[in-house]
Design brief:
Structural class of chain A: alpha/beta
Oligomer: heterodimer
CATH topology of the largest domain in chain B: Rossmann fold
Strand order of the largest sheet of chain B: 6-9-10-3-11-12
Mean pLDDT of chain B: 83
Strand order of the largest sheet of chain A: 6-7-8-3-9-10
Number of strands of chain A: 10
Shape of chain B: elongated
Number of helices of chain B: 22
Radius of gyration of chain B: 36 Å
CATH class of the largest domain in chain A: Alpha Beta
Mean pLDDT of chain A: 80
Strand content of chain A: 5-15%
CATH superfamily of the largest domain in chain A: P-loop containing nucleotide triphosphate hydrolases
Strand content of chain B: 5-15%
CATH architecture of the largest domain in chain B: 3-Layer(aba) Sandwich
Largest interface: A-B, 189 and 200 residues
Structural class of chain B: alpha/beta
């Protein structure tokens, strides 16, 4: 019935949607994993089942009463007209009551089921999200955001689809199918046997068609995935496509994929839609056989006309569950496959958790020590080799060196985004692994190379640094970060909503915002990872002054390509291939005329001094 | 509705096939309506009159009819699938073509995600509307009308009793559709919100961890999740109560038929067979009603999608070739001149600020023009005007004396090699990416371009060298590597005009210097525009333009500017001053700040 009208809301979401037809590798495990989510609703579900039984029964009684009304009163010419009319009125009353109770219980069952299923699904989503947050940074580094996102949405959507297809309807129709068979046998064994013949035929056809359909849809999903991937890439890089006037070849490659989708779509849908007329014609055959055979039996005086009418009614109700089963088969398979992958993520090991022995980190002086630290992202390819360094409280430590030397990795280790392999990192002499991770991170203020802004107002984005901060405090922070001026020029000032990738701001402006955020956070240890790479040097010089003020009394780590920004550092560490190759103050290193001197001079090469 | 009409051109080529599908559908309905008639015949003429021949003949007739309708249904499906899929394909094609004609301004207004939705789910919604309409569209109304006629034929008085019921049912459906529409919209909004939070927490995982905001984000998600669950429960409940309500209405009809019809049978007005047939007609009248709720949902979403699709299709690209646009007059010298150029991003909006104001500048063939200025000053905008990615709001830009608006865009673009601020790579191999602007380039040329961009060395370190795989958007390369590949890509096109838009910001200084050296030898043959932050980058430029608040604040060579431009001196100081005692001004000032 109405469930076909479609709760399509989510279906239209992710552009790539592989999950629809996919089969769960292990349907039973996925189902078993879903059970705990349903368990809390056991009483509600019992109630639903009771309702389903009642309305199924009423669904059986209804046609029976109708047949009885025809046979016992309408057709009963041997009775007096008054008697027939009185009986008929009574019967009509009973029918009305039966139908009313049946439909009422049906509605209640649906109502309850919607509540239960949505609450269970909500829990699944919440668990998924909560677990996502505990996953180590390496998980997010390995799984590109776009792919992960479209996978998650389509998986959750697949589960949602199956649930909103109304499980009660299925349960009810199966139940009523069984009931109908029983009722038919009670009424007339011969007619019932004839009716049952349709079941194996129907199942065989369904299975036969479903095999092609499944293959067709799997192929279609694959083609759609490829087309969407191609489209996404072209459109997101559209400006480059235009700049290199490659539009013609972009169109060619799109058309090829578009045509492939068309062909796959025709194939898959032709088979899928075969099922409808097939089941229809079988259903018709079934009813016709019933009528023909029944009429013949009636001619022999074996059955009454009323029984035939009842059988026709039953027959149509009997075909329905078979048809629904065929329709829902794919949706259920897809839901289980989706559930399986959701659980896969829930089962991914979280980042190392705090143990009961983990200690809180209160006020700190800010001494940071690396002692013979080793680390590699990929086993066998060390990124940090035997590194030892010390940052005294309040010091500014600059990390310089070529791309890929391991500077950002040092930050990743200090924040425990990644865990070191051996050696020790300590803050105020305490091994950071013995500390509560949240406490540790609260002490660190990060301005990252890749600025990330939320689709919220400018104000809220700054406030992210300290949730309780007042608007004034946020504006002060923005002022210190030299961001106030441009924010005021935005259409709605601090209330301007930043879009998707904050494309309404320039790269440099985004960096200024994330600096404001860090300033507001007021951390004990400040970490600036290429924080001003896209900011022009004059603005940078002004921020620099603010930052220097901010850095007073805090330990700071500064990573920069532009070496001008680090001349205020108390010590400069030159990193190459995961090792510290030079160490000293800016001036000392220049005097040494080594690696740093060459790096430093290269940026002034040819400049008239 | 006018949105659908505007998209009719997509369906027009398939009108013949659509007509056949609709014809088959109509015939199917007629056959469907015949069956209850035959039921009546078999009972009244066969069973009740003890006529075996009628029973057998009618049964055979019914079987043949349903067999015929089976094949007709299959044929209808074949045609409607064909039309539906073709329409979807053509729609995607039209949308994609349109997007290819977009200029930068148009692209700024449309997010990738939105365009993707137009091409995928909106196209699908439209397709579904077409296809399902062809499959059941006329079925519902025809079935209703047909069975009503038959009902009246069977028993006029009995049929009249059904009219109020039909009216009630129609009202229920209209109310239902009206109620569902806003509910759907609300659920969609809540879902968008939920997905946004999920997306942000995945893409910004590092930030959430760094600021220890898991609790905050968890709360944010929980709120959104609760809201979504609440709304979708509501939708499901309203939606699923529709079934029992409609069934109840049909049931009431049946009771009326049995009761009122029974009275008539007792009175001898009609036969029992007529009642049985009547009940069947009732079913066939009512089922289309539920079908129509489904259809109206599909049409509602189809219309909404059509509206969004039309928005894309009806966009007139901001920048277009003029009707008399000319090719280039050979040989191209590469002289670029800005004459009183002003620009604002939203030219319809007077309140919108001018990004560039009255810019005058001349780049002689072979010259290098460097552009300096504060964050957000308009540097990138200025260079984006040269390839006509945006059209100037006032003034004009000339290439070899010809207004670039009179040239064919493609010819203009073919002259220009650009390295954008954000380096976008495409999936494929490293070699393919470098060849992007000139697919026919030889391997030797590719290597030469890569060498000049200082990319050759790291490429050779990759296990597969130039055949190494590049992931979408170059996700498997570092920022500096991507920039160097983008530079190589631009160099390979051997452009007459080269534009480097802060394209070495993620490259370390040493590498940048090497790129500079390589470019210096190459760039002599090109006119080039270099947007930069570092003074060292612009040192050798023939002309340095300092942009401040959208205006040219200073212009000249390094030597000239260092002497007479305060703003340039300030920039110079900000990079060279202090720390390293080279006698530059500013050293004393910073020394004070040092803690």
């Amino acid at each position: 019935m109405t469930q076909q009208s479609g709760f399509r809301v989510n279906r239209s979401r992710g552009p790539v949607d592989f999950s629809k037809i996919e089969k769960a590798r292990n349907a039973q495990t996925a189902l078993a994993r879903l059970l705990p989510y349903i368990k809390p609703f056991a009483p509600g579900l019992t109630l639903v089942m009771v309702c389903v039984v009642v309305y199924t029964l009423m669904g059986l009684v209804g046609p029976y009463l109708m047949g009885a009304a025809i046979d016992r009163f309408i057709d009963a010419r041997q009775l007096a007209p008054a008697e027939r009319l009185a009986g008929l009125a009574g019967m009509a009353g009973w029918m009305l009551a039966t139908y009313f109770i049946g439909n009422l219980f049906h509605a209640v069952a649906n109502w309850l089921m919607a509540e239960i299923s949505q609450r269970a699904l909500k829990q699944v989503r919440e668990d998924l999200f909560t677990h996502l947050q505990t996953l180590p940074q390496s998980f997010f580094d390995r799984n590109p955001a776009g792919g992960l996102m479209s996978r998650l949405t389509s998986d959750i959507d697949a589960i949602n689809q199956a649930v909103s297809q109304n499980v009660t309807a299925l349960a009810a129709s199966v139940l009523s199918g069984v009931g109908i068979v029983i009722a038919m046998f009670i009424l007339d064994a011969w007619l019932a046997l004839a009716s049952l013949l349709v079941v194996p035929i129907m199942l065989w056809f369904t299975n036969f068609v479903a095999r092609y359909t499944r293959k067709g849809f799997r192929d279609l999903q694959k083609q759609i995935g490829e087309m969407n991937g191609n489209m996404e890439e072209t459109i997101s890089g559209q400006k480059v496509v235009n700049a290199f006037h490659r539009n013609a070849s972009a169109i060619d490659s799109f058309r090829a994929r578009n045509t492939a989708v068309f062909k796959a779509g025709v194939y898959a849908n032709t088979y899928a839609l075969l099922l409808m007329p097939l089941t229809n014609v079988l259903g018709n055959f079934f009813v016709i056989v019933l009528v023909g055979f029944g009429s013949w039996l009636a001619l022999q005086g074996l059955v009454s006309v009323g029984i035939i009418a009842t059988f026709i009614s039953y027959g149509q109700n009997f075909i329905e569950p078979l048809r629904q089963l065929a329709n829902m088969y794919n949706a259920i398979q897809a839901a289980l496959a989706g559930a399986e992958r959701v659980f896969e993520i829930i089962d991914t090991a979280p980042e190392t958790q705090d143990t009961p022995e983990s200690l809180p980190l209160e006020k700190i002086a800010g001494r940071v020590n690396f002692e013979q630290v080793n680390f590699s992202y990929v086993p066998g390819q060390p990124v940090i080799k035997d590194m030892t360094l010390e940052a005294r409280p309040g010091e500014i430590v600059a990390l310089v060196g070529p791309t890929g030397a391991g500077k950002t990795t040092i930050i990743n280790l200090l924040t425990r985004f990644y865990e070191i392999e051996d050696g020790q990192i300590s803050i105020d002499g305490r091994d950071i692994r013995s500390l509560k991770k949240m406490d540790l991170r609260r002490k660190l203020g990060l301005v990252l190379q890749d600025t990330f802004l939320f689709s919220d107002t400018v104000m809220e984005n700054i406030r992210y640094g300290a949730l309780g901060a007042s608007d004034e405090a946020c504006i002060d922070a923005a002022r210190l970060a030299e961001a106030d001026h441009f924010i005021r020029q935005l259409p709605d000032g601090y209330q301007t909503v930043l879009n998707e990738r904050a494309s309404n701001l320039s790269q440099g402006q985004r960096q200024l915002l994330s600096i404001a955020r860090a300033i507001l956070a007021d951390p004990a240890i400040l970490i600036l990872d290429e924080a001003t790479s896209s900011v022009d040097t004059r603005t940078e010089a002004r921020i620099q002054k603010a930052l220097l003020r901010l850095m007073q009394g805090r330990t700071s780590f500064v990573i920069a390509h532009r070496l001008r920004t680090i001349r205020d550092a108390d010590q400069v560490l030159v990193i190459q291939n995961g090792q510290i190759v030079e160490q000293g103050t800016h001036q000392q290193l220049l005097d040494r005329r080594g690696v740093f001197y060459d790096l430093y001079m290269s940026q002034f090469k040819g400049m008239a001094i | 509705m006018q949105h659908i009409r505007k998209l009719l051109f997509i369906i027009r080529p398939y009108w013949k096939r659509s007509a056949v599908a609709l014809f088959l559908l109509t015939s199917l309905v007629v056959l469907d309506l015949l069956i209850p008639r035959l039921f009546q015949l078999i009972i009244d003429e066969g069973v009740n009159k003890n006529n075996q021949t009628v029973v057998i003949q009618t049964s055979i007739l019914m079987l043949s009819i349903s067999l015929v309708s089976f094949f007709m249904a299959i044929a209808n499906n074949l045609f409607s699938v064909q039309v539906g899929e073709s329409v979807a394909r053509d729609l995607r094609d039209a949308l994609f073509l349109k997007i290819q004609s977009y200029s930068y301004g148009d692209l700024d207004h449309q997010k990738t995600g939105e365009l993707m939705v137009r091409l995928s789910s909106d196209a699908t919604a439209f397709q579904r509307m077409v296809q399902i309409s062809l499959r059941i569209g006329t079925r519902a109304p025809l079935l209703m009308i047909g069975s009503l006629i038959l009902m009246f034929q069977t028993s006029q008085s009995l049929a009249l009793t059904m009219l109020p019921l039909l009216l009630v049912t129609s009202i229920v459906i209209v109310v239902f559709v009206g109620k569902m529409e806003p509910l759907y919209k609300k659920v969609q909004q809540k879902l968008d919100r939920l997905n946004t939070i999920l997306q942000e927490n995945i893409a910004g995982a590092r930030l959430v961890k760094a600021f220890v905001r898991a609790g905050f984000e968890g709360q944010r998600f929980k709120t959104a999740n609760d809201n979504f669950a609440k709304n979708s429960t509501e939708v499901m409940q309203v939606q699923s109560s529709m079934g029992p309500i409609l069934t109840m209405l049909v049931n009431i009809g049946m009771v009326i038929v049995i009761w009122a019809g029974g009275i008539k049978v007792v009175g001898g007005d009609i036969t029992t067979g007529e009642i049985v047939a009547f009940i069947n007609y009732l079913r066939t009248t009512m089922t289309p009603l539920t079908m129509m709720t489904m259809l109206s949902n599909i049409w509602a979403s189809g219309i909404a999608s059509a509206e969004r699709i039309n928005k894309v299709l009806n966009t007139v690209p901001e920048v277009q070739d003029q009707p008399q646009a000319a090719g280039l007059s050979e040989p191209v010298e590469g002289r670029i001149e800005f004459r009183h150029v002003s620009f604002q991003y939203n030219s319809d909006d007077d309140a919108c600020q001018l990004v560039l104001e009255d810019i005058n500048l001349i780049a002689e063939p072979g010259q290098t023009v460097a552009i300096l200025g504060a964050t957000g000053a308009g540097k990138s905008t200025l260079v984006n005007l040269i390839p006509r990615f945006y059209d100037v709001s006032a003034g004009a830009i000339y290439l070899d004396g010809a207004d670039i608006r009179t040239l064919e865009q493609e010819a203009l673009h073919s002259l220009i090699g650009i390295v954008p601020q954000e380096s976008v790579l495409f999936s494929g191999t490293v070699g393919e990416n470098i060849r992007y602007g000139r697919p026919e380039a030889s391997q030797a040329e590719v290597v030469a371009a890569a060498q000049a961009a200082q990319a050759h060395d790291f490429i050779m370190k990759l296990p597969e060298g130039y055949a190494a795989h590049v992931e979408q958007r170059g996700a498997n390369f570092s920022g500096g590597q991507k920039q160097r590949l983008a530079i190589a890509r631009a160099l390979l096109t051997n452009p007459k005009i080269l534009i480097l838009d802060d394209s070495t910001s993620a490259v370390d200084v040493e590498t940048e210097t090497k790129i500079q050296d390589a470019l210096t030898s190459l760039l002599q043959r090109h006119t080039s525009f270099v947007v930069a932050q570092r003074i060292s980058t612009v040192l050798k430029a023939d002309k340095i333009i300092v942009i401040d608040n959208g205006r040219v604040a200073a212009e000249g060579t390094h030597q000239e500017l260092i002497l007479n431009s305060p703003i340039y001196q300030e920039i110079y100081d900000s990079q060279l001053g202090g720390g390293f005692n080279l006698g530059a001004p500013g050293a004393a000032q910073t020394a004070e700040v040092q803690p």
